[in-house]
Design a protein that fits this description.
This protein has 356 residues and is of the alpha/beta class. It contains twelve helices and 13 strands. The protein has one domain: TIM Barrel, CATH 3.20.20.70. The strands form four sheets. The chain has a six-stranded parallel beta sheet. Strands 5-6-9 form a three-stranded parallel beta sheet, covered by helices on one side. Strands 7-8 form a two-stranded antiparallel sheet. About 3% of the residues have low confidence.
Length: 356
């Protein structure tokens, strides 16, 4: 019997999933998607390892999903692209047999219209269907003061809770560059969150809803770098977890559900430690992009003499090459490489057979 139902999880189901992850000791891969190939590959990998998974989209990913030619001056194309992706997942997750969390990635104050559009859309959808399209959304207001950050998050959490949607917040800044947001030159002190800041956020938000997660900074950086170039301090998560537990009188528990951003290239040791300290989700993007790219690279390397022209190849001057330049062939190989790499991440996150 499956522990979680196949399909998009939301509300109490999401809380139950994250509670199980902390109790058992695993984390879910939160995988960025940009189109149907990546969405389908994410669910394919989750089905192979028999575990829940998180499909997430950024505002840039949403725009690409909708079509880059579309006007996006108010991030309306980003929002509709995400809504389209959500409907795609809702239609197919049950067929894949996968418990799926639908999530949106970093949203700064400058891009808040993107999340506003999605909430408005889902409020109408919830009224008609009794459920939302997404499981959760993220607000990354780490560039604001912590007071402004949490005050804004409180308002959004209250609104999201009314439609059974969770919220992910960010405390401290994840370094590096991703999807047009460049934090490469940020003050290094902002890359490490203080336990008192985690408690401040937890104390304020938990009075509204339990359905929130915290992306605390512990030196993590977007992108991938040579070993030794990124200094992770995963003990920040342990110290923060203990600080919050002490403050609320629940010593020895893990009240905070943490999110690990900028995890590409991280050691399995650091990943497993972070899970011990309450990480229930690890974002994956850079490594997955590389895997998809490698699939395409190897395809064109193997069939370079078959995709150079429409007719004529090493097997005969008059032979057609349609079956080699059919986009489905090359994209399928990219998907297969993507799935193989994602299976590795499921294993690193101790997330194999977690739906039994």
């Amino acid at each position: 019997m499956s522990k979680f139902r196949a399909g998009v999880l939301y509300g109490q189901e999401l809380l139950d999933l994250y509670k199980d992850a902390k109790n058992v000791g695993y984390a879910l891969p939160g995988v960025n998607a940009v189109g149907t190939s990546s969405v389908n590959a994410i669910m394919e990998a989750a089905a192979k390892v028999n575990s829940p998974v998180i499909v997430q989209l950024s505002f840039g990913g949403g725009h690409f999903y909708a079509g880059k030619s579309l006007k996006n001056d108010n991030l309306q194309a980003s929002a509709l692209g995400c809504m389209s992706a959500a409907r795609h997942v809702h239609e197919l997750a049950e067929m894949y047999g996968v418990p799926t969390v639908l999530h949106t990635d970093h949203c700064s104050l400058a891009n808040i219209a993107w999340v506003d559009h999605m909430i408005e859309y889902q409020e109408d959808f919830y009224q008609k269907h009794g459920k939302p399209l997404f499981s959760s959304h993220m607000l990354d207001l780490s560039e604001e003061s912590i007071e402004d950050n949490i005050e804004i998050c409180e308002k959004y959490l209250a609104r999201l809770s009314a439609i059974e949607v969770g919220l992910e917040i960010e405390l401290g800044i994840t370094g590096g560059e991703e999807d047009g947001v460049d934090n490469s030159d940020v003050d290094s002190s902002k890359l490490y969150t203080h336990p008192s800041e985690v408690f401040y956020a937890y104390d304020r938000l938990s009075k509204i809803s339990d359905n929130f997660t915290v992306a605390a900074a512990f030196g993590n950086v977007h992108g991938v770098y040579k070993p030794g170039n990124v200094k992770l301090s995963v003990e920040i998560l342990k110290n923060s977890q203990n600080f919050v537990a002490d403050e609320i009188g629940k010593i020895g528990t893990k009240p905070v559900s943490f999110v690990f951003h900028g995890g590409s290239g991280s050691s399995q040791e650091d990943i497993r430690k972070s899970i011990d300290y309450g990480v229930i989700k690890m974002n994956l993007d850079t490594d997955m992009q590389w895997a998809f790219n490698a699939g395409l690279r190897d395809y064109f390397a193997e069939y370079k003499d078959y995709v150079a022209t429409q007719i004529g190849n090493p097997d005969g001057d008059d032979l057609p090459n349609k079956k080699y330049y059919d986009p489905r062939k090359m994209l399928r190989q990219a998907e297969q490489y993507f799935v193989e790499r994602l299976e590795q991440s499921f294993a690193d996150l101790n997330c194999i057979d977690r739906n039994n």
